[in-house]
Write a structure and sequence with these properties.
With 184 residues, this protein is of the alpha+beta class. It has a domain of 81 residues. The protein contains three helices and four strands. A four-stranded antiparallel beta sheet has the order 1-2-4-3, with helices on one face. The N and C termini lie far apart (130 Å).
Length: 184
């Protein structure tokens, strides 16, 4: 009995009944699924919609093929459940990803708006600041007396040409000059 219980526990919350169709000698399952879930008949297992509302759908799972047994019907329902759970998980991951990206875009947009506001404020502020700085510089220039500049021209005394400044001799003679002095 434990084996059947384990198998049916996997369908918990979805399986409503297992019935034996005595006319055809086959089993039929009645399952309830959420309305948003996807399902489809195959060549071996058929699905018939018994009832549907906004919350869910009631299905009959059956097979016209004699080779298909109750185990196959139960396995088919497990595939429907697993597939839809995977779809729900993927949708949840996608929604989380979209929320993260949405938050990132909102953050970037708010930074962009902030930069634009600062630019708008600073551009006009900088113009007034520059004018104030120029005014301050002019005021400072007026306050400070400028020192007199030394004359650049040479003074000619008594008709003599100006003396050329004497170059100081470098104490370090070149090697050739030293050789010349020694040979002299």
């Amino acid at each position: 009995m434990g084996t059947i219980k384990k198998t049916l526990d996997k369908l918990d919350g979805k399986l409503l009944s297992i019935e034996r169709n005595t006319e055809e000698g086959k089993y039929e399952l009645k399952i309830g699924l959420p309305a948003s879930w996807v399902f489809k008949s195959t060549d071996y297992v058929g699905l018939e919609e018994i009832a549907k509302n906004k919350d869910g759908v009631l299905l009959k799972v059956f097979s016209d093929d004699e080779a298909v047994c109750i185990d196959d019907l139960i396995e088919f329902v497990k595939v429907i459940i697993d597939t839809n759970e995977k779809i729900a998980q993927k949708e949840e991951e996608y929604n989380k990803l979209m929320e993260e990206r949405k938050k990132q875009l909102q953050d970037e947009f708010s930074k962009y708006e902030e930069e634009l506001d600062q630019l708008r404020e600073k551009s006009f502020k900088s113009m007034t600041d520059e004018e104030e700085e120029e005014d301050d510089k002019k005021k400072e220039e007026k306050k400070k007396p400028t020192p007199p500049k030394p004359p650049k021209a040479r003074i000619i005394r008594e008709g003599k040409p100006p003396e050329k400044p004497k170059k100081e001799k470098d104490d370090s003679d070149s090697l050739e000059e030293l050789e010349n002095k020694l040979t002299d």
